Known about the structure:
Number of domains: 2
Radius of gyration: 22 Å
Keywords: Kinase, Transferase
Protein name: Glucokinase
InterPro entries: ATPase_NBD (IPR043129), Glucokinase (IPR003836)
Number of helices: 13
Low-confidence stretches: none
Number of strands: 13
Strand content: 15-25%
CATH topology of the largest domain: Hexokinase, domain 1
CATH class of the largest domain: Alpha Beta
Largest sheet: 6 strands, mixed
Order of helices and strands: HEEEHEEEEHEEEEHHHHHEHHHHEH
Strand order of the largest sheet: 8-13-12-9-10-11
GO molecular function: ATP binding; D-glucose binding; glucokinase activity
Amino acid sequence: MSMPITINNLAIQSEIEAFKEAAKSNNLQDYFIGIDIGGTNTRVNAGFVKGRIYEFTKFTANDVETLYAGLLLAETILRTVYVNKAPLACCIDIAGPTTTSDDYHITNYNHTNNGNVVQRKMLPPMICPKDSTYFLNDLESGCYGLVSLIKDRQDDNYFTNMVTRSQERTPGSQVFVILAAGTGLGAGLIHHIDRSDKYYVIPTELGHISIKPVGPNHSLFQKEMKLLSSIEPNYEKAHSSDKKRMFSLEYEDIVSGRGVVDCYNYFKSSTDKAIDNSGEIATTAISLVENDSKFNVESNPCTLAMMTHYRYLFREAQELAVGLRATDVFLIGDNMVNNAPFVNAVKDELITEFFDHPKEHWLKKVTSLHVQSKKENLNLLGTIYYARTVLDQ
């Protein structure tokens, strides 16, 4: 078990002091807490009704015992500002489902001895008040973070338009598709109503829908059939059962960390080295395209794996945009920012993939596609935004 760090980081210390000073000088009695639980780091943040966010605690945790200890430390710090006054609302985001009301399973925590199961009753009661603490899935929180940027008119500072629709957005309401490729493939929807200027986040499991293959006369048909027949679905890896190859691959089987590795193993020859880390594959692919602007992505298994990964991300974006008649698609997450050199090198091919659909004219007329180009912790923003607005919802 890892122990939470002590608060000796100068940046964190300055945040604590700034939070104290803002509360005291402005006599601010109402505040909100947002807790972003990642697979490695947990960040505890505070904010007032409006204004900046203060990250006053950060610690390492990969099991709930360490998490509880870190949150107790955060509560101790909070008491130096507010003594016994709880926040109006606390919002916590985790990787995993949040449909239960008492126990929450964090999918990227250590599962040994239920070390991944957060029990609501075990949370420190001042910083996480019993009746006003809310749990969000991490992609859901990221969607609220995006809403926060949009409402503050900051989204253009963090996203680049890769595709811009040809006609003006029609008034009334809009649908945004949000996709985040990481360990898995997160997918969510945002519905915006113009009249009330309300944004409604709809968490989904659309990363698990089946891949739509191309038709038999498509130039990529033979290659694709061979690929889709060779990649092992995740359900087979998890369950050695009689379900073998009964179902299509899910998009997440390719658009994920494990999908990148599986694609690399599919494309590599007997002389290529074994790589079981998607980060190494991505780094190699980026290096190859950065060092040679005319590099042929078909000539290396790392670039082929990354190209396949993004081709299917853009295909899912296409399918959801058509099916939902989405006005906007946002591809979010640090991986989009980190892998920007590769994505930009193959941008034309990815845009072609996005439009490769019978309803191409819909996509060109109705949908804009935005790619995150600058890092921002959307989950962190989302927890505070949700805590601030939950009483109005």
